[in-house]
Amino acid sequence: MRKGKKGITWLTVIALAASLMAGCGAKEKVPEETQDKSSAGDESTVKEEETGGILRMSMSMEPTGFLSTDISFLDSYILASFVMERLGRLDKAGQMEPFLAEEFIENPEDMTLTVRLKDGIKYSDGSTLDAENVKWNIEYVQEVKASLGAIESVEAVDPKTVVITYSEWNSSGVNQIGGLFMMSSQAFEELGEDGFQKKPVGTGPFLFDSWDAGEKISLVRQDNYWGEGPYIDGVEFKLIEDAQARLSAFMAGELDVISPGINEAETLDAAGYPCVSENPVVGGMLRGLIFNTLDEGPLQDVKVREAVCHAVNREEVIQAVSGGKYPMADQFSAKGFWSYNDNLETYQYDIEKCKELLAEAGYEDGITLPLTYPASDVELATIMQGVLEKAGFTIEMNSVEQSVFDQAVVGGGGWDGIAMWTSGSGQEINGFNDTFGEHPFFFCSSLEPVPEIVELINEGKAATSQEDIKVCTDKLQELICVKHCLVCPVFMPSTFFYTQKNISDMNIGIESVNQLTPQLIKIK
């Protein structure tokens, strides 16, 4: 049994996707009657310097809505986090800690996950976050997306306790349940699905005020928020689709927070604006290369795949695509993340070793390999072509439309040679399963299934302790990235955030925004 303690404990992760921080759990409000009122000067200073004001942010595209099942891209995820909260949140190592929940209790023998809730948490419409409401949220998501594992039943056994029973054990259950945005079932019933999409009701520190289509979304503070804060009066999300226009607005003082592209980030660095994304990646996305091991050809020989990996100069690629900002990746996980194998020797840049392996495989005179990529990825694909050709490969560029590429990697069409690879990192067993498991669906159509990998993933899914899961993920990193060399991870594309100098305590990081603390934000 794994059991969380009251307040903040362990447990594991999801993200988004991404993506990709410094976590700061909300503290309980101190009742007014117990506060020390002897330092009136300090209290007034806090009110004067650190409270009030409107935080001005931007959106690169307008959200379609805010049902928990429909929140997908980064801007909508950030906005939703001001209004709705989750049962858990990530710590720095990417493990899920209770947040709205008091604790998570796993019982693999009984195939149950028990969620105990904190007392006294209410939605902004006055309804209570209780077991019946959490049961409704879980069943709604499972009905719409069936993404929470093999759930047999969900039972509210008392006002504070929900018991989820699985038909087969799900070692990722805490990650999946803990990562759900909680919605007010009362508001959903009153507003209907379409109405809730446009005016969600959560337990968060802010309320929807107005949505001016094509212009902005405005939030106002919830004065009855259950935790510490909020300290500011509201938030305004302006729709600014053009990256240069967002940069200009930020530098003109019209925005308080910005997530710039790499070129814009260099401008902000030079101007001395603070980047608040200084901590290691939690989860996030991976970019790199994936090999066609299914069809007859040179890439069926693991030595050729190893040679490709030795040819990739990760530092050169990262410098070219991000000015050196993106974190390097050499496993199916982020360094510092719980599923990263610290003891694994991976394939590093070594031209001589590359040529030696090609000679052993019978290609001492060089080899020609196709590189398949979506047209939108031409910049990175061209960089990878240059890196590989420096090592003696001849790369045939195979650019296809995004829809064709999607069909190739997800729909079963397959790809020629090497493909540009994008993936969520191995932040839980299901992350490995999506591509390498018994029933994969993502970047799997040109991979020859590897029985020992499939068996190990199934073992990890059935694991009953975090220690057993860690043993499985360490071995999976070795099998996928070294022994069978199915992929060549290169870097983690990261979203950086900059703020004006008078903004503090936002806690928004590189890729995963699960640790964003909107209730603590201050404008000085």
From TrEMBL:
Signal sequence bounds: 1-22
Listed Pfam families: SBP_bac_5
Keywords associated with the record: Signal, Transport
Region (Disordered), start-end ranges: 28-49
SUPFAM superfamilies: Periplasmic binding protein-like II
Residue ranges annotated for the Solute-binding protein family domain, each copy included: 96-433
UniProt-listed PROSITE patterns: PROKAR_LIPOPROTEIN
Family designation: Belongs to the bacterial solute-binding protein 5 family.
Entries under PANTHER family matching the protein: OLIGOPEPTIDE-BINDING PROTEIN APPA, PERIPLASMIC BINDING COMPONENT OF ABC TRANSPORTER
Protein name: ABC transporter substrate-binding protein
Provenance organism: Blautia celeris
